[in-house]
Amino acid sequence: MRGFKIACLSVALCALMTSGAAHAKDPAAHLYKPDPAYPPQPAMFVLRDHDSSVYLFGSVHLLQKGTKWRTPLFNESLAHADTLWLEATFPDMTNPALLREYYKSGYDMQGNLSKRMTPDQRKDLEALMSDIGMQMADIDHLQPWAAADVITSEFYTARANNKHIETDPNKKYKRRKIIQGVEMILEKSGLGIPTKSIEHTRENMLKHSTLSDADQMAYLMNTVNDLRGEISVEQDSKMDQLFNAWVTGDLNGVHASGNKDMQEKTPGLYNMMLTTRNRQMTDAIIRELNGTGTDFVVIGAGHLAGPDSVLRMLVDKGYKPERIYDRREPELSSTKRKFSNPGYKQGKIYPEQLDVSLRRAKGDRADEIILRLSTPLSYQLCGDISPISHLVKEEEGALTIYVGPYYITQYPAAKKDDCGTPIKAASLDIPFALDDLAGDKPRILQMMAPGRMDSYKVTLSENTLLFEPMGPLSFFKPVNGRDLRLDLEESAY
């Protein structure tokens, strides 16, 4: 995983994507075309001021075996760097707390992805999954964006292992041997310099979950079409164009071959994946340039191409990136080293009891209330405590909340600067529409934990929402020790 974990395994979708929008003349256009006086090599740039330098290298997140991409100039510049910046580092992306949040955001509790698709969409999806040994049941419980990520991961895993079913009996398309990309090679090499994420990893990993339903479905189907295309004769030449554009430093070719479909078909995704991220990376680069020392930044080549590129944004802000070349030929570079354990420690804890309280929703959501479950804690640690895990299900005659553990994640020494304030509680806020809790008849709300169950009768009378225990309470107890009441005419908290 790179950048946005599984999604960014796709060269076509991540490393080689940028703007195709209609803009005024691009003041950075002179930076996109390689100088033929030098040997072909991936695009590399530098920004300098009186006390600092920032090198920019456009990468791909997957390589074809045998590719010569790493120049002596690349090595010399990296050797002088005080910090290596990647879109996201392996330790940041393997934070257990973040991964739990990532996976949870991709689940559709109703499990009905197939029902959200048209017959033609499902036919195309199943054709691709058949080629890589998957079935609809493998992804039917996922949101469309998460399904796209899983399919992409499985596709490239199968391709890297040469396990595709042969779809071209005449063998007209290439069987590329895919290996780890630039970032993984650098990060696994143990360079001896600090390696940091230039993007906010949590925001980047969860960004797809903020897309509209329409953009999510468009993202899924574009992914399906792109991946199906990669095992077709027609798409094979396009993939060659994309990869050759990168390895020769032709950023105009990267832009022309890899991005127009996304911009035209999914503008919301395009803006999120490129324009917004490029703006954030530009700000981070300027921040480092305003400091001291030497920084080496490696980001997908698509972020350096096109009229919404990082280069364009730097020029628009008055900076002058310089394209640099090596007169020496690039060399092979790969690695078989494995990542060392980042050193996270984690534990799973089941609460002994949960306090229950009611609150009004914030803002103008007058038809919504918050049911809060919490347990007191006293921790001072460099780490994270997750919300209490849960599942809400509509069952015959009752609404049931299943509650599980919360998780403690302790950060490794490298992340000690992330230490927070004392943690006083593990909690869970569950929003409910009033209509789901109370109507003309009393509603039964069951709360279940391993080996425990408490029930409440929920009624709404004269603007007062009442949760009345239906017997002695053993686990889910009102925070005030009695029943739960909420005056709906009071101001929201």
Automatic annotation (TrEMBL):
The keyword Magnesium does not apply. Pfam families: TraB_PrgY_gumN. Keywords: Signal. Residues 1-24 form the signal peptide. It comes from the Bacteria. This is GumN family protein. It comes from Micavibrio aeruginosavorus EPB.
